[in-house]
Please model this.
Amino acid sequence: MATPQSNGAQRGMALLTALLLMLAILMTSIAAARTAINGARAAGHERDRMLALSGAMAALVDAEHDIEGGADPASARAAALANATAAAFSEGCRGGAPYDGLCAQAADAADIFAALADAAGPSVALGSFTGAQIPVGEGALAVQAPRYLIERMPSTPEVLLYRISALGFGSVDTTQVAVQAYYRKLLPAGPPAEPAQAVAEPGAPGTPGGPGVRVGWREISNWQEGR
Model:
């Protein structure tokens, strides 16, 4: 026969066990909530990074359009890009209008990255010379338009080679992705075309006289630390 003291001890043990179980459940719930919050935060960061990467890739395409003549193929800028005119490509990319964002080959990649990162610097916002547009603003949109620089690289009389550096943004200024690509154009062989031939359709991309082609691209993985 159980005594009042033994019954009280049993009730005390049951209460202690219940408290320990509740504490274990509470700690498990807190850990699960933290995991969910961290997962949502990581997913948000990755979504924002992909938004910045998309912007940087759009700036690459816009720079290629710029090289091919942009919105005004008869302009001095278009002529300079079509012929890689050395005088249009300045040290530090600061040649001024109409050669904004055109750079002589940088001795140190850090110089290009610094110019690209400078909000008040020489980089060209997407659409400046092509008329292209990209939505920017708040919420799920990029906080500002992506921008780019075009370097004139060593080449041969038959080949023009440019290096494009582009920077895209996420929904906040601190989310940035930088990419680089080379763009190669083959010049037409032989003497200039006769007037009757000048209106002919251009060649296929990558062929002499045709549009240029992108020769690989890479994301600058240490962008935030290296600039």
Notes: The CA atoms of residues 74 and 80 lie 10 Å apart. Residues 49-226 form one domain. Residues 195-200 have pLDDT under 50 and may be disordered.
